[in-house]
Amino acid sequence: MSARTTELNQQQGSSLKVFSSFYELMKPRVMSLVIFTALVGLVIAPEKIDFINNVLSLLFVAIGAGAAGALNMWYESDTDKLMSRTCLRPLPLGKLKQAHALSFGILMSIVSIFGLYYFSNTLSAFVLALTIGFYFFIYTVWLKKKTPQNIVIGGAAGAFPPVIGWTIAMNNITIEPIILFLIIFLWTPSHFWALSLYKNQDYKNAGIPMLPVVAGEDYTKKNILIYSIILFPVTILPFLLGFAGLINLVSSLGFGFYYIFLSFKLFKEKDKMIYDQIASKIFIFSIFYLFFIFSTILIDNYLGV
What is the C-alpha separation between 181 and 52, in angstroms, rounded? Predict the structure, then answer.
């Protein structure tokens, strides 16, 4: 192999690493959830738009979600170094410069908002801009290090995507997207408090006032149970309001009862090692819980509810 070929291979490898780092900066797992929940809002809307506009609109929603993630990682890069869960992100590892992350986040925010405006409508672009701004300015900058209710209020940012999906098709906001918003909004606290229970030391090290750090683990377990109970009736509303069918109802009932059972089991458990294991199980199960609620809404709509 010639020296020139070796040099080209090294450059290609370096370019791929940079691309991979920027991709990680956009929080791809969060992006996938955003795309999925936005898709549900779009699909259940009575008005349908053409396939190309659907795809491009969802693409810009995904870019907006990635932009918010990049801005979040830029702002929290020093904090991320202190936590085992986040220390391997691109900025703590020095894979990217902070200035590049900030510029990338701002650029992608602008591209996503104007792209959605062009291919969809003003309302959906406004809600996307609100989502990015809420996640960065309200949650990341203002709430996260100031109140143990950070995830309760800040969770609104993660609940907006199905509303955006609906507005792409309908250019309005009615009860259906509001219910989808409420499901995610009420799901978020128990999901993240379960994580903060078994990652408590991480948050202490980083100086983030998550509920178990400030109010104690028993109080956190109680609140996880309360939110699992509050969430349950809201997950049944899509069926009661007629935009989901029996498949969604059965899934919501089954997953909901089991989620409350796990949360109650966590609440009653006193052994730290055991309830950390239960908290980890709740965190993982909650992802499937939300996924199946939204998946079955899609399935019911495909089958004609």
Answer: 25
Cα distances (Å, whole numbers) of residue 242 to 44, 49, 171, 258, 297: 11, 22, 21, 24, 11
Residue 67 near residue 32 (C-beta atoms within 8 A): no
Do 136 and 243 sit in the same domain of this protein? no
Cβ proximity of 37 and 165 under 8 Å: yes
Q: What whole-number distance in Å separates Cα of residue 75 and Cα of residue 96? A: 13
Q: Are 131 and 64 in contact (CB under 8 A)?
A: yes
Mean pLDDT for the stretch of residues 92-107: 95
Q: Does residue 218 sit in the same domain as residue 107?
A: no
37 with 149, same domain: the answer is yes
- Write out the residue range of the structural domain in which residue 267 sits: 174-305
Domain count, the chain: 2
Q: pLDDT averaged over the chain?
A: 93
